[in-house]
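Subject: sequence -> structure tokens, single chain

Hey, anyone have a minute? Need the predicted structure for the following. Not urgent.
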Amino acid sequence: MKIGNIDLGERPVMLAPMEDVTDTSFRTICRELGADMVYTEFVSADALVRNIQATTRKLEINPKERPAAIQIYGREAGPMVEAAHIARQANPEIIDINFGCPVKKVAGKGAGAGMLRDIPKMLEITRAVVDAMDIPVTVKTRLGWDHDSRIIVNLAEQLQDCGIQALTVHGRTRSQLYSGNADWDMIAAVKANPRLHIPVIGNGDITSPELARRAFEHSGVDGIMVGRASIGAPWIFHDIKEYLTTGSYTPLPLEKKFEILRRQITESIDRIDSYRGILHIRRHLAASPLFKGIPNFRETRIAMLRADTPDELMSILDKVYDLLAQNQQATNQ
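Reply:
Had a minute. Here:
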């Protein structure tokens, strides 16, 4: 699969853009573990134009994480073009436009998935950004605003006509948010449209290597995107890529997984500061499948998510690792 001149190989697997998740450290780790391309957190065009430092920091790209896309969102063509020019200075491989974020503070103001209620404005913005850029511009969006307006098959053609070079489709409507099941039949319908010639990337409910392969086989998409299943478990890219390549996979050892979590904690603290770095990483720890199913784990989980110093947090992780390692050893005997 190629986006412009960027060759991502066969059946690429990408890290989805996620607010407060896909910082440069996490993206680099995911690339090392097998993600073929990564996306930044979505970046507000208005905040970029106003030079809000918390937003401009999101443009930082580590050479080790490339190829990388910067994703921007907004509701007016002028600021979106200006933001694209600012983002372009970070030298991403791709500028991606977010027409899919469903949260109220974004979609409710007409940006993100809110654009699904104003298709002419969506196309105006897309065309303006494409015309302003000398690198590929792509779009990520949803099936439609709600069940009665699933317009994605026709919309994909319209966006292609604006000049985008790839389209990512999340298989839910905005009204669904993240509930229900992603509709891969609709994603397949987009890919099957003979008038569509740009790559189609499918997104939604890919939580295992087996589901990743099924997504490719069922829909015929050119690539897939993994989002929430990577939070607290970036090694899912290792498992998926190995499974797609060989038909089987060997999960990373428990020790390696804890090593990755400790690295995330350290790099989060180094990137921001001790207090905010720990706050940031709590979302990853809370979502990590490593801790699911541990008997009587509630008090330890609470302590882990309340820890406010690096030493305290690392000490708790060490104790959890020792417990899981002992249980694993007992199971194997």
